[in-house]
Structures are given as C-alpha cells and as structure tokens.
Design brief:
The protein is an alpha/beta fold. It has one domain: Rossmann fold, CATH 3.40.50.450. The protein is built from five helices and seven strands, in the order βαβαββαβαββα. A seven-stranded parallel beta sheet has the order 4-3-2-1-5-6-7, with helices on both faces. Helix 1 packs parallel to helix 2 and helix 1 runs parallel beside helix 5. The longest helix has 16 residues. It is globular.
C-alpha cells in the first residue's frame, strides 16, 4: 500500500477509536463502519492496536485505504497475542502496558468511544482531561459523565462521522 503525502497540504485529522478488546457483533459492526468512514474523511486512525473494537475499526479503515496507527502496550520485540492486529500499518511499541492509554487519549484530535471496559473508561477520562473531544457512539454506559461541552453522545455512525468532521475541521484549521 502506498500513502501519498502532498506537499503544502493541510495536516490530516487524527481520529482515535477506543473500545473493548473483546466486543459483541453489534459493536464490531459499528467499529468497522466507523473505521471505513474515518478513512473516507481522509483522517488517520489511532487505536490501541489490539483486538475487538480496535481491530474492527482498524479493518474498516485499512480496507477503505486509510492509514492505521496502533499504540501498543508491549515493547518492541515483546510478544503479546493479538498485538498489533493485522490491520495496523504503523505500530508504536511503548512498553508501557496500560499506561499507553495516555498516548492513545492525547494523540488524536477527537476520539470516538465505543462500548468497552476500564481501559476505555480511562482513555475517555484522560482525553477529556487533556481537552480532546470525545464522541460516545451508542454507548449509554459512558454517558453518565457530568455535563461537559467536549463530550458528545450519538447513536449512529453517520452522526459520529458528522461530529468527527466538525471537530477535525475546528482543530486542523487552528
């Protein structure tokens, strides 16, 4: 696969997708559609690089021609089953285990959160603490967050992608 970088082009948006390392079929379908949509917007996808929602979003983006970056828990040369998933183009080996969530949360311009567990919750909290907008996609368990103008809740992938487009355009034009 060849990625074309244009001289003098504006920086592409960077979109994070966070969600469970194991997920049900509904969440996996949302993640894959979301990944494809992110690639369709011309954005770079960042995930934790593992299975479940991370792999499904990575698959959608990769198959749609997008660039996928995985922020991995193990050090380079370290073996961790399922990391990186087969769709990660750029593996970032951190050797930081769960502490890598800080990098996952602070690298993107905006994050879309899918159903997950404690790792996903930590990424949401770290992102908001850093001022990174978070879009909760069909994930009511996370919507209990106190009112926060940088936290949005949507029910469908098209709604999430519209919010991503808005957030990325606000950030990349600064």
């Amino acid at each position: 696969m060849v990625f074309k970088i244009r001289k003098h082009a504006s920086r592409p948006g960077i979109v994070g997708v966070v969600g469970g390392g194991s997920a049900g079929p509904g969440t996996l379908a949302l993640a894959e559609e979301l990944g494809a949509g992110i690639a369709g917007l011309g954005c770079i996808l960042v995930t934790g690089g593992g299975g479940g929602a991370m792999a499904a979003a990575s698959k959608g983006a990769a198959l749609a021609g997008g660039l996928v970056i995985g922020i991995l828990p193990q050090k380079k040369g370290g073996h961790l089953p399922g990391y990186p998933n087969e769709y990660v183009h750029v593996p970032i080996y951190t050797g930081m285990c769960d502490a890598r969530n800080v990098i996952v949360a602070q690298t993107p311009d905006v994050i879309v959160a899918l159903e997950g567990s404690f790792g996903t919750i930590s990424e949401i909290a770290l992102a908001r603490k850093a001022g990174v907008p978070v879009i909760s996609l069909a994930c009511p368990a996370f919507d209990a967050v106190a009112p926060d103008p940088g936290y949005f809740s949507v029910e469908t992938v098209p709604e999430a992608l519209a919010a991503v487009r808005t957030q990325v355009s606000l950030i990349t034009k600064q």
